[in-house]
Amino acid sequence: MTDVLVIGGGVIGLATAIALSQKGANVTVVERDLCGHGATWAAAGMLAPEAERLEGSLLEFGIRSRKMYPQWIANLMRLSGQDCGYWCCGIVAPILADSAECDRLLQHHKYIDREQTDKCQSGLGESITGSFWLPEEGQVNNRKLIQTLLIAARSLSIKILEGINVYQIERDRNRVTHLDTSAGKLQSDRYILATGAWTRCLLPLPVKPIKGQMLSVYDRDRQLQRVIFAPTCYIVPRQDGTIVIGATVEDTGFTQGNTAAGIMHLLNNAIAVYPAIANMQITETWWGFRPYTPNEIPLLGASDYENLIIATGHYRNGILFAPITAKLLTDFIIDGIPTPFAVND
Ligand code: GLY
Fold first, then answer.
1. What is the structure's pLDDT at 103?
2. Which domains does the chain have, with CATH numbers?
3. From the CA of 280, how far away is ligand 1's center (Å)?
4. Ligand 1 center to residue 281 CA distance, Å?
5. Residues with CB under 6 A from ligand 1
6. Residues 6+ away with beta carbon under 8 Å from 249
7. Which atom from ligand 1 is nearest to the alpha carbon of 315?
8. Ligand 1, atom 2: closest residue by C-alpha
9. What is the number of the ligand 1 atom nearest to the C-alpha of 316?
10. Which of 158, 208, 269, 287 could lock 153 by a disulfide, CB 3.0 to 4.6 Å apart?
11. What confidence score (pLDDT) does residue 106 get?
12. Ligand 1 center to residue 335 CA distance, Å?
């Protein structure tokens, strides 16, 4: 028996496993693939509640999590000895000349004109008339983060079971009794469902996949030092010269693969926003599936089963929301403190 069995080894599952373990729980993570190879791997790693234009309680949630990042990363670095490219580089969110909202946006207190924008980041496309400057926003290298989380988890003796399919969550009245898996029965006191876009394979919750196609190019000159979050695409420079460009938003189920149209759309928009990309070498193309909920708010906390806790539906912001999700679920499980965005709200 283990205290907590986390179903899903993405950023949400691993972050929660680590937080629970640091509070003394005995934790196992079971993952159908390799840990972090779903949306966590596909993401750009932006920490951007303002650029993403979250609103109301979700914006507050995102800003709280963004503020938790420095300490959260420091803890992971201490446990793992690894760096994960956390970089509070600031985000420039350009306004395009033809933006329908242009007049309203000019009044915003974070608006800067073209001249000030150029001081923040040179080389932006001609159609940009000004931007929002969001100095508290930034990024983490999500692929490095996966490795860091795994090393940190193992350092805490969290058991990681990869390549195991959970077929069914077996229940008796209002309790989960065990998981029926490709490795046999798995049993625990409590279970956390952190299965992202694949949630409906196990429970009928309102979560569906929204595909995002992405690509990266290599910037030999490393002139780009800010994340550029335009209305049509985002451009994320890593410290090693890689530039990540995203992303399409496609309601096509679990359709695999990059399409010519998807990549053309991203490149046309990215080159318009940052023309130097035209001469950079393409280094990779990929795609992933965001766990979308109808109101774009995650599902967190208690379920209809007293020992099953839900942590899914983080849609576009799983990397950003990981620290706060891990903390709130740990507070809920250890101290019974209710979570926001509970499933039955
Ligand atoms: N957070 C960016 C995206 O989901 O494309």
1. 67
2. 4-84+141-206+294-335 (3.50.50.60), 91-134+208-292 (3.30.9.10)
3. 22
4. 23
5. 44, 46, 212, 246-247, 290, 316-317
6. 210, 211, 212
7. 4
8. 316
9. 4
10. 158
11. 72
12. 33
Segments in the chain below pLDDT 50 = 1
Query: Could you tell me the distance, in angstroms and rounded to a whole number, from the CA of residue 316 to the centre of ligand 1?
Result: 4
